[in-house]
Amino acid sequence: MAISAEIPALTLLAPRPAAHAVRHLVRASWLEALRRNELVVVGLLLGIYALAALVLRVIGFESAEAARLVRGLGLELGGLLSALLVILTVGRQLPAELELRTIHPLLAKPVARETLLLGKALAGWLLGVAALVMFVGATMAITPAAADQSLLVLAAALVLKALALAMLTALTMLLVIALPPALAMLLAAVLALWGHFLANLIVQMAGGARWAGWAAGLIPDFNMLDLMQRYTDGGPLPAAVVLAGLLVYGLAWLCLLGWAAAQSFRRMPL
Predict the structure, then answer these.
(1) Dist CA 98 CA 104 (whole Å)
(2) CA distance 97 to 100
(3) Rounded to whole angstroms, how far apart are CA atoms 210 and 217?
(4) How far apart are CA 183 and CA 171, in angstroms?
(5) Which of 4, 139, 149, 173 would you call most buried, defined as having the most Cβ atoms within 10 angstroms of its Cβ?
(6) What is the pLDDT of residues 212-257, one digit of tens each?
(7) Which own/partner pairs from 94-98 qualify as long-range (CB within 8 Å, at least 24 positions apart)?
(8) Pair 89, 172: CB distance under 8 Å
(9) Tens digits of per-residue pLDDT, 217-226?
């Protein structure tokens, strides 16, 4: 009786196959990313920015506005490079598996298609978040903060930026399943950087027609989740209801894009 009572407990403590597969996929994707040049380029740009900011810090900034400008530049550069890193990493992983036919042994282990997709997406997202954290950390350590720059605003900006990177991960994965890799990554970059302007352009060209508003709403607005400029300018923390609305907006797009990517990959012939 004692032995039989211990078996369910051991079963609950044992790692789930899906979780183990996701960890393995994330680790393999990281190793593959290290063999490529994207991380090297991000590291070099981080080093160049850090060196330039450090020189300015030693020499002394001409004014508080100059220090604010350099800090804002580092934060914006970190956001841009982390987004591009996510697009390049996620956009190359699945096509490479399909081209080399290494996807078949993975699915034969067996690993569910949704698990494979989750592992690849999670690896790309974590790399993007790591790049963002490194740039923000270097910027905060080297450049002086202004008196009106709130750490609470920065924390909210980081959370929303991480959510935006998750949205971008799901979007890139969906596009790379449906389109050729180069076109998918280009479209993901255009939507990530200029989706807000494209939505406004549709509304303006349609003269404010109702259908234009619906069409513009179908374009994910990554700019809505960007509070870095608010922090740089010393703006106040948005109201709780506004932050909650932004989180709901980002999570809704993440779930929708992730679900669409999973459905598309499930139906994709291999």
Answers:
(1) 8
(2) 5
(3) 11
(4) 13
(5) 173
(6) 667 777 889 999 999 999 999 999 999 999 999 999 999 999 999 9
(7) 94/120, 94/173, 94/176, 94/177, 95/176, 95/181, 96/32, 98/270
(8) no
(9) 788 999 999 9
